[in-house]
Specification:
Number of strands: 0
Strand content: under 5%
Structural class: mainly alpha
Largest sheet: none
Length: 275
């Protein structure tokens, strides 16, 4: 990482400026600040990709096996999803709310331990299912995180409407129906991806002779709790026909479960080095 540290540092600085630009736009309805922030975020995405490519060349593996790399990849997934959704659906303020989380992850990854991974262990992971398992898990977490942020926006706009706080800022929010639909769509994508990731993880654990230890690991248990929480969200939406604030509150609660899964369970796990 030392050889590309300056790119990493530049990425953090540009990311901070992008979030600042979106914040100015949020407070002042400044379209020029919004455009500048968008292009800065696009540069951040490119620089993040460059860092990961350099890490692949440097380590001869996919850079996702240490806490530092995991958080960095998680942040990149969030930036990617926010840019895609903003490009195709043009949801105002969405990128601002989303990239507050993304920037926090990037900042934390700056100080996260970049644990050494032995070549033997690295080769073993690459030859097995672990890389696919980890990558799919992070993509699912990214989808859930963005979905929950959309629910936060839903609740924010709902309260503004309820309190009759009509103004330019309110009209720039997407409709409540669109926010809920996008949130639901992301969970529809995230749930099967996480389910498949966990299945691959269990298969990998079995092949590595980690059973039955793997079933008692805090990270495995909390990951299944995340799957249950968002699976229940789909049950409420599809089977029970639940919508509106109740569904949004449940989705926001899911984000708290993800944070517990990522940061608290990571301190208790016995073999998930990358979390």
């Amino acid at each position: 990482m030392s050889s590309i540290r300056w790119i990493y540092d530049l990425t953090i600085i540009l990311y901070a400026l992008s979030v600042l630009g979106y914040f100015v736009d949020f407070l002042q309805n400044n379209r020029k600040a919004n455009r500048i922030a968008f292009w800065l975020l696009s540069i951040v995405w490119v620089l993040q990709l460059v860092v990961m490519i350099f890490r692949v060349i440097e380590t001869n593996r996919f850079p996702i096996l240490t806490p530092n790399e995991g958080l960095f990849f998680y942040a990149w997934v969030i930036v990617t999803l926010s840019l895609l959704i903003n490009w195709f659906f043009r949801v105002d303020f969405f990128v601002f709310f989303t990239n507050i989380i993304g920037f926090i992850l990037m900042a934390v990854s700056w100080f996260a331990p970049n644990n050494y991974v032995s070549p033997a262990f690295s080769d073993q992971l690459i030859n097995e299912l672990a890389i696919i398992h980890i990558t799919m898990a992070f993509i699912a977490y990214g989808a859930f995180t963005v979905s929950s942020i959309l629910s936060v926006m839903y609740l924010t706009q709902y309260n503004m409407l309820k309190e009759k706080k009509v103004g330019k800022r309110l009209w720039r929010f997407e409709s409540l129906g669109r926010l809920e639909s996008l949130s639901y769509l992301l969970n529809v994508v995230g749930v099967p991806i996480l389910f498949l990731s966990l299945i691959l993880g269990l298969i990998y654990g079995y092949k590595m002779n980690l059973a039955p230890t793997i079933f008692y690991d805090a990270k495995v248990i909390s990951s299944f709790i995340v799957l249950i929480v968002y699976g229940f969200y789909l049950y409420l939406k599809v089977v029970q026909g639940t919508y509106g604030r109740q569904l949004a509150y449940w989705n926001v609660a899911g984000l708290l479960v993800i944070l517990i899964n990522y940061f608290l369970a990571a301190t208790l796990t016995e073999f998930h080095l990358w979390y």
